[in-house]
Specification:
Length: about 280
């Protein structure tokens, strides 16, 4: 064995060892964390990521989920404009701060600090009143929201136009994806389904808002373990409704609370009950 060979072998061994170390750092000690970070990893590459178990153990940040905001409809999926305004007011008066999903991600994965009393305000189904009513009211109180778009609704009656969606992103809100046509993730069987419901609409939405779309809300809140794993290839965080988090994919099963028509005090009580905050 000549010297040159020994030198090369040593170098190679060194490379293998250092890349294993790197892999262990990323996956944590339990070996359970196999989530993928979508998007730009380079800036945060050297930081240690929390394991799935560590993410689950962290105190949950309350995430609210609104659907329709209009008069005269009753049910869990509609609040009146006056109720929505009253909700935003009591959240502001109680010292809550809205955070972005990016901040939530950095908190869950890298233990980054959050403002006092953090929470997220999210909206599903791309309704026109999200741009016309919700966004201006939130902005008045210094809040920013997260709007999950099902992209089949672009420019349709009662739904947001592509310009309105772009406007939300420009105003500092986050735009996420809610599938193409609201088909549940558990029904995506073939690669073509993932293309149609996730990959293609994600690309189109990114063109509209001019930035990466890194967050997902499950249609009907329904997920399974396999789907959560697949979504981790596309999104930093996926939001469910109130269901048990997946122990391996906690970032892909972040819980939200549907906000029904209720008093402002009722909202705070539900938040405490649901998230312990
Ligand atoms: Zn929906």
């Amino acid at each position: 064995m000549n010297r040159k060979f020994i030198l090369i072998s040593t170098l190679l061994l060194g490379l293998v060892v250092s890349s294993c170390k790197h892999a262990n750092q990323r996956d944590g000690n339990s070996g359970a964390a196999t989530y993928t970070v979508a998007g730009n990893e380079s800036a945060v590459d050297k930081q240690t990521m929390n394991t799935s178990a560590q993410i689950i153990a962290k105190p949950e940040v309350p995430v609210l989920c609104y659907h329709r905001i209009e008069e005269g409809k009753k049910g869990d999926y509609t609040v009146s404009p006056a109720t929505f305004t009253a909700h935003m007011k009591i959240l502001a008066d109680s010292g809550y701060h809205s955070i972005s999903p990016a901040q939530l991600y950095d908190y869950l994965v890298y233990n980054k600090a959050l403002p006092e009393k953090p929470m997220l305000i999210t909206f599903d189904d791309s309704r026109v009143e999200h741009a016309m009513i919700a966004a201006p009211v939130m902005e008045k109180y210094g809040f920013r929201g997260v709007f999950f778009i099902m992209t089949i609704t672009y420019n349709k009656k009662n739904y947001m136009t592509t310009d309105q969606i772009a406007g939300l992103a420009k105003a500092g809100h986050t735009v996420g994806l809610h599938s193409w046509d609201h088909t549940m993730v558990t029904k995506y069987k073939e690669a073509a389904d993932w293309q149609k419901e996730v990959a293609e609409p994600k690309k189109k939405l990114e063109k509209i808002v001019g930035k990466a779309v890194e967050y997902w809300a499950y249609p009907n809140g329904v997920y399974d373990h396999k789907g959560a794993g697949e979504l981790s290839k596309y999104f930093k965080i996926s939001f469910t409704l109130i269901s048990k988090r997946d122990s391996i994919q906690p970032l892909q099963t972040v819980r939200r609370m549907i906000v029904p028509e209720c008093t402002p005090q009722g909202l705070l009580k539900s938040m405490h009950r649901t998230f312990g905050k």
